[in-house]
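Project standup — Tuesday

K.O.: blocked on the structure for the chain from last sprint. Re-posting the sequence here as requested.
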Amino acid sequence: MNHMESFLARLGDDRVIQGPMAGYSDRAFRHIMIEHGCRVTTTEMVSVEGMVRNGEKTLELLRLADNETSDGVVVQFFGADPHSYSKAVEMLLKSYRPLCIDINAGCSVRKVVKTGSGVALMSDPKKAGDIIKAVKSVDGTLCVSIKFRLGLTFDSINYIDFAHVAVDSGADILTLHPRTASQGFSGVADHSRTAALKKKIPESIVVASGDVMTVSDIARIRCLSDCDCVMVARGAIGNPFIFEQKDKLAVHSEERVSALYRHYALLKHYEGERRAECLVRKFVKGYSSGIRGFSFCP
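H.V.: unblocked you, prediction finished:
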């Protein structure tokens, strides 16, 4: 079984992966997703520059949850220097070997883009290709994915050409968020573009990302895009039930509240009580939406 086959086998029949989200997909988040059936998790974005400088906060992002194993985790790196990528991967492999290394070429946050990282790589496909080659040079058997958008603007859509360069450089998995950088998260993710990508490059694993908020979205997007698997990111915030093929609003309020307090307990376990009280607040609305008269008491 090659590494691409191993990736799909790990996902199981549901073929749903938890997506990376800065400030959200930390160890506590990934822990509770696994408890609810998630088979493949993804770290927050990890800076390759922070990694090679042994930044304490950066290294913390790479620590696994207690119920997480390296063969079920995707590590997402961002940066613009191929050499830094190879050094970061070398350092990571001294600790554990992840299921996959993912390269972020889709983040449109200004502080990331201005460094030439994230979606800025879409304006320089050769550099993106050099980064993939740098990762593969460390260990040619590593599974490498790249997450990207349609392009910077609607006037510069280049996702198909970008994907060809990525595959020619050694990428095994293509994850498309079918919006432009200028859209951010506005508008609607156009998964007909994901279908076009799969049709153009059928030999690659194609992951559909964007606007996956419910179980029916997973089925709809899989059907529309002909993708190999679906990535759930924002749709999993306060909603680990999606990995059990349950729609949140159909889950009994007591179960949802119980999950919130479980998430809070995990945050305390990993981050300490004081920090957990701050971090949990971003999840309360997701867990409790639609529950009348609910108030959270940490």
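K.O.: great, moving the ticket to review. The longest helix spans residues 253-271. The chain has two domains: 3-239, 253-288.
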